[in-house]
Specification:
This protein is mainly beta. The chain contains three helices and 13 strands, in the order βαβββββαββββββαβ. Strands 2, 4, 5, 6, 7, 10, 11 and 12 form an eight-stranded mixed beta sheet that branches. A hairpin with a 5-residue loop joins strand 10 and strand 11.
Length: 228
């Protein structure tokens, strides 16, 4: 699963994704993004890629209220075309979710040690995502998204049994624009990302608390030396 990630290179978003911004507030760097928070996503609007702000945690159009959002921040890619919560969004409303790192926790006895995962060159990348639009009984419209997950690559296998789907840059166009009747062809992208292009390192337990924010959440963790 992917329950926490970071996006700090916000000034390079538009250039990196060849997109235009459509957000009300200026994007700010975040080192510890958690479900239900607003996040930038890249969507195809006509012939233009747009960067929009949506809620992380899918609220399907048929949902009774927003509470389901906290449970639908990830979706399993293996059953994406079967689950009512996700299949229409995968066919008609795919998006890219920019990131420059994500976190997973490894159990060590009773404790959990957080690890940061990203590209070896620290570059921006994109999770494969889906989005939907929900109208509340009171009238306001909420747009939300979910990150697709798959089996782990060699870098994650000893830490977690899932990892986010990472869409290769060369496939951004087809991910965003492939017509809905051909959506099943995207199955070739719903696989573990090449581990040789990634790196991991331990980070501070600070990132385990969603209220914590700042560069220290993603900084390499220096363990205290053991006393002899």
């Amino acid at each position: 699963m992917c329950g926490r990630y970071r996006l700090t290179s916000v000034k390079r978003l538009a250039e990196s994704f060849e997109a235009e911004e459509d957000v009300e507030e200026e994007l700010a760097p975040h080192y510890n993004i958690a479900p239900t928070q607003p996040i930038p996503v890249v969507r195809q609007v006509g012939s233009t890629r747009m960067i929009c702000s949506v809620r992380w945690g899918l609220i399907p159009s048929w949902a009774k209220d927003t509470s389901v959002s906290a449970k639908l921040f990830n979706c399993r890619s293996e059953t994406i075309l079967e689950k009512p919560s996700f299949r229409d969004s995968f066919r008609y409303r795919r998006c890219l979710i920019p990131a420059d790192g994500f976190y997973e926790w490894k159990k060590t006895g009773k404790a959990k040690q957080p690890f940061h995962f990203g590209m070896k060159d620290a570059s921006l990348f994109a999770f494969g995502g889906i989005w939907d639009r929900w109208r509340s009984p009171a009238g306001p419209v909420f747009e939300s998204c979910s990150i697709l997950t798959t089996t782990p690559n060699e870098l994650l296998a000893d830490i977690h049994d899932r990892m986010p789907v990472i869409v290769p840059r060369a496939h951004y166009e087809i991910w965003l624009t492939l017509p809905s009747p051909q959506a099943n062809q995207l199955a070739e992208f719903l696989v573990p990302f090449d581990a040789s292009q990634m790196r991991r390192y331990e980070v501070s337990p600070l990132v385990s608390h969603w209220q914590n924010e700042g560069p220290e959440c993603a900084a390499p963790f220096a363990r205290a030396p053991e006393l002899s």
